[in-house]
Amino acid sequence: MENIMIQDNQTTSSIVHSPLRQTVEIAVKSYFDQMGDQTITNLYDMVLAEVEEPLLKSVMEQTRGNQSKAAILLGLSRGTLRKKLKTYDLL
Fold first, then answer.
1. Which residues contact 26 (CB under 8 A, 6 or more apart)?
2. What is the pLDDT of residue 20?
3. What is the pLDDT, as a whole number, of residue 19?
4. Which of 45, 54, 63, 76 is a Cys-bridge partner for 69, taking CB atoms 3.0 to 4.6 Å apart?
């Protein structure tokens, strides 16, 4: 794992970076812990919705709004990307 320093509002903190897979696993386990014995349904759709919007926002920022570059980066057709951007009001 790699440690990096970030500065936010004049406060410096250390963040430990781990692979995305491991981060997701930790987050899902934490969610289960928080939910306790409550019935959970539609977890798959919930996780996708939680991840997809910030992913699209980050990619669009990285590509400076270039949808063609973003579609290539994501491995989507440009039409599919546009549909997803509209879904999240990102157009």
1. 18
2. 86
3. 85
4. 63
Whether pLDDT at 13 is above 60: no
Q: Which helix (H) or strand (E) holds 24?
A: helix 20-35
Give 25-84 as a DSSP string. HHHHHHHHHHHTTS----HHHHHHHHHHHHHHHHHHHHTTT-HHHHHHHHT--HHHHHHH
- The rounded radius of gyration (Å) of the Cα atoms in the chain is 17
Q: Which residues contact 53 (CB under 8 A, 6 or more apart)?
A: 88, 90
Tally of CA atoms within 13 A in the half-sphere of 23 that contains its CB:
9
- Among residues 30, 31, 26, the alpha carbon closest in space to that of 46 is found at 31
Q: b/e per residue, 45-84, with b = 16+ CB within 10 A? A: eeeeeeeebeebeebbeebeeebeebbeeeebeeeebbeb
